Amino acid sequence: xxxxxxxxxxxxxxxVSLERSIHEMINAQRRTYALxxxxxxxxxxxxARYHSSDMTFRGYFSHGTPEGRMPVDRARIAGYPVRKxxxxxxxxxxxxxxxxxxxxESCREVTSFIEYPGGIRQVTGRRxxxxxxxxxxxxxxxxxxxxxxxxxxxxxxxxxxxxxGIGVTFAGDFAHxxxxxx
Length: 182
Fold this sequence. Notes:
With 182 residues, this protein is of the alpha+beta class.
């Protein structure tokens, strides 16, 4: 049985599916620059999801929480290791990219009315029509935005990162997306 939805109906996008699409696009970017692919780390994704959820439900958009907790602090609290040795260098911390993306490209208000003789109109209803992004479009918009930002791009293309975690939450017509690197 085929279910028909109105053309402007909000698509069902499952957060973990969008996370996977973003992960695949990130690795495609890394391959373009002859860099090794990042593994998708479930524990690091948990850290990222927590931050996306926190931003969504407490209404802020920042690498730091309102209490001043930074990405490395949140990773430590979650029990994630934040120190590693690469060659002769010791790194401590995690990298982070965040994004707040609208789920639609455009929205317009449509007014319905009945027109009577003499130019008289009676409004019969108002509604909004949306042009919603697909999951792939949201992933491409997110990764494209990061790649066009020097600091975010640097995180994505940093050679010593081996793993990433991605967390997506939705609220209203927006997605909060956190990407953590280790």
